[in-house]
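Retro notes - structure team

What went well: the batch runner handled both jobs without manual restarts.
What didn't: labels got mixed up in the shared folder, which is why I'm recording both outputs here explicitly, each with its sequence directly above its tokens.

Job 1
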Amino acid sequence: MKTRLISYAMGSALGLSIAGPALAAEAEQGSPAAKTFIEMVEEGGKNNLIPLNPDDASKDMWSKPRDFSKDDRKPGIINVQRGEFGMAYVGIPTFFKAPIALTPEDLKVGKVDVAFMGASLDMSSGRRGTAFGPAAMRNSGIYLPWGKGFHTSSEHTMIDPLQDLVVVDYGDAPVDFTSNDRSIVPVYHLVKEIAETGTIPAIIGGDHSLMYPNAAAVAAVYGKGKVGVIHFDAHIDAEAGGMGHYLTHGSPVRRLIEEGHVPGKNYIQIGLRGWLVGEDMTRWMREQGIRYHFMAEVEKDGWNKVMERVFQEVSDGPDYVYLSIDLDAFDPAFAPGAGTPEPGGLTPRELFPVLRGICAVKQCVGFDIVELNPLVDNNNATSHLANRVAREVMNGIAMRKKGITDPKYLHPELTNHK
């Protein structure tokens, strides 16, 4: 593949507004540009280059995280809450009010099962605003209490994943808010950093271009060809075109397959529908060996039969699975705050058992929840739904940890009152 430099120039006014007085003074010392920005873009276009301003002191500021390894403290997870328990709306916002971890050593010493991280990539062709998704997810609790003395067990399995798993907030990946292309690498390395410790990375987006660095990072740790991706979405996300860009939120599947990170036969797609499907696309999907389940199949055969097929496909697949959950897999009635909503989708009651069951059947080595756009959410319904999606995935992970591998397991006391 021919490589190219892709990034976006930050105008001096924008750069200085975020850089502060010190960086402003430094940037003002640069010599006048020999060419106008228009001339530079036109020249760069001939070579597929987008120029950066070398005199902008904020050019790489976003990509320089703190070095926590220099902190004078013992490794381990850090509880930042002032109290031992509280209601959902009380306390410092972390994912599920979980403790925080800052380094791989923290994850190892804390024996962490799941590490949540935010990734605010937001270059959607739909309704932008998913950059605010991680913050909304950290504040997505409405009433469930947290901390010692409270058990928030599943109403299906009587398992409390927040008690049975060690869960932490690992912070956010650094992103260039003007460029997905420049942001992909730091996201990839942070996901890989988590996975290399044996901890499950849980990435909250952000748009669905995230599936590319997320799944590629997990595949790099567990082995290319050894990870299956279970992809819940209204859209196929395997477009070949992207205005000249290799990656958009509509093309992560194609990138992952064509670059060899995840073979097509290891892909299962569920909930597909909408108006961006053609014979060329379905032909490509069949050629790659993708197992796909359009809503047309659900309409023809019913959800229960489709779910049986999915569990069979998961059982016959590789030992490790990665779940990618685009919230537009749900019908907009349940997820009005999705980035690219599409009517005719799944209900929570249909999808939740599949999320639990997949993680019970096979070892989950990572998952993401993407396209949460709180700027267009109705009464926080989608943020609340995303909260429950994460809980159901963790529920399945906890089931497997307890030795429960029946994908349809329900606690007997919850199905029979006699």
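Job 2
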Amino acid sequence: MKRSCRPISVLLRVLCVLCVSVVNPKVVRVEAQALPRVIIQTDLGNIEAEIDSIHAPLTSANFLRYVDLGMYHLARFHRTVRADNQADSKVKIAVIQGGLDPMRVKGFPPIKLERTNVTKLSHKDGTISMARAGPETATSDFFVCVGDQPSLDFGGKRNPDGQGFAAFGRVMLGMDVVRKINAAPANGQTLEPPVRILNIVRKGR
């Protein structure tokens, strides 16, 4: 009896169709854009942070301008907010705040607030964000969240205006250093003595 070759020929046709539809001689590989990283060098150790220049471009550019000009050389972490020093605040947070020494360096003009409802960033554990008073007053001071702090996002209740703060990065390494600073001796919320920022530099430079 003569064997039929039809099953084999059908299989070959299916394989040919799959090869034509799937294989493309030109494979374009799109690589994710690498975000800049900085090293915050302090008396208590280093903190490595990633700066989100994609989602918060204005705030990131402002911060990196201070970094690239060496203006955080001999700056300081001067404030800690934790459970034992905010009795008068209805909405509790935990952060450390640092910035330029105003006796040594004058900052640039304030920048526009990049709200978290626009950037889609949020104040999670290790988030870096800009300190401010009014909505358009941020200059060089920044803070790092210790634990998740949703009250600092847009619509949060920590700031009476409800506009939140401009998150622009996150700690990748060194949260143990952040927690040491948060627990350091303080008079109220003022670190005494301040924790020195020896410098902030871009990683790899």
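One thing worth noting from job 2: Residues 37-202 form a domain with the Cyclophilin fold (CATH 2.40.100.10).
We'll revisit the folder naming next retro.
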